[in-house]
Amino acid sequence: MSRLSHFEIHMVHRIGWLRAAVLGANDGLVSTASLVVGVAAAGSGKPEVLIAGLAGLVAGAMSMAAGEYVSVSSQTDAERADLARETRELAETPEAELEELTRIYVDRGLDRDLAEKVAHQLTERDALGSHARDELGISERVTARPIQAALVSALTFAVGAVLPLILALLVPETRIGLLVAASSIVGLAVLGGLGASAGGAGVLRAAARVTFWGALAMGATAAVGALFGVTVG
Predict the structure, then answer these.
(1) Based on the structure, what is the number of domains in the chain?
(2) Which of 4, 89, 117, 126 is the most exposed, fewest CB within 10 Å of its CB?
(3) What domain range is 128 assigned to?
């Protein structure tokens, strides 16, 4: 009888970089488009709109990188502290830790004898890894990576932010606000759909969610710009 290989790709394996990428691209597009629309609504000329947008791109990318690095580093610190505590407990109270692992498998549906055998074998092979995975929920595949998250966030923010800037550069000055807003809404829908597709989630709901909040942000900044009508210069 032939043996068939079975290969699966699970979306959770991408969670380390996917969240940062989707957040960065969406934030870059929304914040820069909102800034461009708001400054244009205030009556500023194209040079001022582009300068404001470029400044927003640089500041936003750096802010996203710093924010992601700090946030994910905090998660990493928490994981390391849990693993250090688990290492001490395994060294000081190995029998109690073995019983704890056994109860976890019993709670998951194994009978007591089988749970004990599984706990013994996994403990002999990799005690810390078994407790990290089954007790703490820490896995190498989905562990936090601060530098990766920071770089992905900054890069995708810049990519998202470039789109409204290019459009603002190409369209007539009097139509910057309208065309940037309209194209950004379409771009947000596409980004939301792509992010959902990459993560295995529903495309339409994700696209609608991102589009709604992006449109709300641009509408708010346009209202502020029109209300104050301050020209940068």
Answers:
(1) 1
(2) 4
(3) 12-228
Q: Which residues of 23-51 are buried (b: 16+ CB within 10 A; e: fewer)?
A: bbbbbbbbbbbbbbbbbbbbebeeebbbe
Residue 185 domain-assigned? Answer: yes
Rounded CA-CA distance 227/233 in Å is 18
The answer to whether position 233 is within a domain reads no
* Residue 155 within a domain: yes
Contact between residue 43 and residue 231 where contact means Cβ atoms under 8 Å apart: yes
> What's the one-letter identity of residue 97?
E
**Token reading at 25:** 């691209």
pTM of the predicted protein model: 0.66
Q: Among all chains, which residue has been given the structure tokens 């092979």?
A: 125
How many other C-beta atoms are found inside a 10 Å radius of the C-beta of residue 170?
9
Answer yes or no: are the C-beta atoms of 15 and 152 closer than 8 Å.
Answer: no
Q: How many CA atoms lie within 13 A of 46 on its CB side?
A: 14
Reported as a single tens digit per residue, the pLDDT across 42-79 is 888 889 889 999 999 999 999 888 988 888 888 888 88
Domain annotation covers residue 7: no
What's the pLDDT tens digit per position in 188-200? Answer: 888 777 766 665 6
Other Cβ atoms less than 10 A from the Cβ of 169: the count is: 12
